[in-house]
Design goal:
288 residues, 434 Repressor (Amino-terminal Domain)
Length: 288
């Protein structure tokens, strides 16, 4: 019995750290930080109501917390790290191949793992297979594992998935529905505390900014893109930086500020060249 309680405490700590949450962040508006500390140290489990809210913030159920094995969680995390590496590089063909590994889907049992799987799958179906219908189905299925309209705490993955759903809807011509998802994801990203933000959220700003630009709402687009560029700079990241910079130039151009737009176009072009160099450096020419 003692061994089981210890496993729960270790699992809780591992899940919290994997989601980049401090004990204070996990406890915020739910309970005292000391409650989390005692639970992770196997001293005392919170009551059911508190435990339910903690699990909701971690995007898992109470049953999954009780049954989860840290070793299995770690092994699955390693498998997803390999997929994630190519995903942030937007090498969707490589991601698609990794998702086809035998027994990968059968090995997933945490809702957050299943959510990631369908997030990656939906992205590949859109960018590789060019299939908007199946992409939307996969993205929505992945989101449904943890997200609902009344949810108090939204994860960064959920924010990204809402944005991607909006992007696919836009590309499918369903612009009214796209606006709802894109605006929602942007608002969520803006409200997240800095400690929980990750550089991958840059795509949220680009997706929404691009939509507003296409709608000729240049004033609002300029605000969103400026927020996106500031966000990227905070993380010293190149993720979607070229796209946001180029979009900023296009907005200035449409506003009749052509001279101000030129440096942004030049910078965006230089960053695209840098990405090409990085791609060439990653190729193994000797084994071609």
């Amino acid at each position: 019995m003692e061994k089981e309680r210890q496993s729960i405490g270790e699992t809780l700590k591992q899940l919290r750290q994997a989601r980049r949450l401090t004990q204070k962040m996990l406890a915020a508006d739910i309970c005292a930080q000391s409650v989390i500390s005692r639970a992770e140290n196997n001293e005392e489990l919170p009551n059911v109501m508190v435990l339910h809210q903690i699990c909701e913030r971690l995007n898992i159920t109470i049953d999954q917390l009780m049954l989860s094995q840290p070793k299995n969680e770690s092994q699955m995390g390693l498998r997803f790290q390999g997929i994630y590496r190519y995903f942030v590089q937007r090498d969707y063909e490589r991601v698609s191949l990794l998702l086809e590994e035998p027994e990968l889907l059968e090995a997933l049992y945490l809702e957050t793992d299943l959510q990631l799987y369908y997030y990656y799958l939906g992205s590949c179906e859109f960018f590789v297979e060019k299939n908007h219908v199946t992409a939307l189905q996969s993205l929505r299925k992945g989101l449904s594992y943890t997200y609902n309209q009344d949810k108090q705490f939204v994860s960064t993955i959920e924010v990204q998935m809402l944005s991607c759903i909006g992007y696919v809807l836009k590309e499918s011509g369903q612009r009214e529905k796209a606006l709802v998802e894109l605006k929602k994801s942007y608002d969520f990203a803006e409200k997240l505390p800095y400690e929980r933000k990750i550089f991958e959220l840059a795509k949220v700003y680009y997706h929404y900014g691009e939509f507003l630009f296409e709608e000729k709402d240049y004033k609002e687009a300029s605000i969103v893109v400026a927020r996106g560029l500031s966000f990227v700079q905070q993380f010293c990241s190149y993720y979607y930086l070229a796209e946001l910079t180029d979009l900023k130039g296009k907005i200035l151009q449409r506003l009749g500020k052509k001279e101000m737009a030129l440096p942004f176009f030049s910078l965006a072009k230089n960053m695209e060249t840098l990405d090409l160099v990085k791609s060439l450096d990653s190729l193994d020419f000797e084994n071609e």
